[in-house]
Design goal:
single chain, 212 residues, alpha+beta, three-stranded antiparallel sheet, elongated
Length: 212
């Protein structure tokens, strides 16, 4: 079955200080909530970046109807105005990050052979209280010849998660090409250093990261 291509973004703090990396994490959290409200699938890589992991750049993969319009609304510079939580006496209060579109992975991926795939169902974990999905709806698919594995847990439907897992596995396998990996790595390095500290497309203010 033919899958719709995902859209890939790079969210980066460039060479900014710790405050910019904090702004990156807050932006990702806000972006994820907004995407989920629209029914979009959003996956961060590294997926386990978490609230406490200090990273300068994160690759984001968007899937679903309307992903292009959603992404366009975030492209550009994001400004966060806040007193530094790390340096209380620091005069600077404006912190910037950038959101860029990454080149798509090779489209001609070919069809994965069913006999090369191993599927496993997983119980969805993490917080959620009474709204947490208690059934084993998450799916892990492993490409046996390479050992490459991906997990999809975005949907409540196990069938839909299986489709998403296969799609992501195809994209990961496409990225195994040395030429492809080098091209993407070069692009990400360039974008990481192209952050403009001005003309923001979105502005947030305060420790609670409220959009203004």
């Amino acid at each position: 079955m033919k899958q719709h291509a995902s859209l890939r973004l790079l969210v980066t703090s460039g060479d900014g200080p710790a405050e910019c990396r904090l702004a990156l994490r807050q932006t990702l959290s806000t972006m994820e909530k907004a995407a989920q409200k629209l029914g979009l699938s959003i996956v961060c890589d590294p997926e386990q970046y978490g609230a406490s992991v200090d990273v300068a750049s994160v690759e984001v993969t968007l899937s679903g109807s309307g992903k292009e319009a959603f992404a366009r609304s975030w492209f550009g510079t994001i400004k966060w105005t806040c007193q530094s939580p790390f340096r209380p006496n620091h005069k600077r209060q404006n912190w910037f990050i950038g959101v860029f579109e990454l080149p798509s992975l090779t489209e001609d991926r070919g069809e994965l052979k069913p006999e090369e795939l191993r599927f496993e169902t997983l119980r969805v974990g993490g917080p959620g209280g009474q709204h947490q999905n208690k059934i084993e709806s998450a799916v892990r698919v492993t490409h046996v010849p390479t050992g490459l594995a991906v997990v999809a847990r975005d949907e409540r439907s196990q069938h839909r998660n299986k489709q998403l897992a296969v799609q992501r596995l195809q994209e990961k396998l496409a990225g195994l090409s040395v030429t492809e990996k080098n091209r993407l790595r070069k692009t990400q390095r360039q974008l990481h250093h192209e952050l403009e500290r001005g003309n923001p497309v979105r502005c947030f203010k305060g420790a609670r990261f409220k959009e203004i």
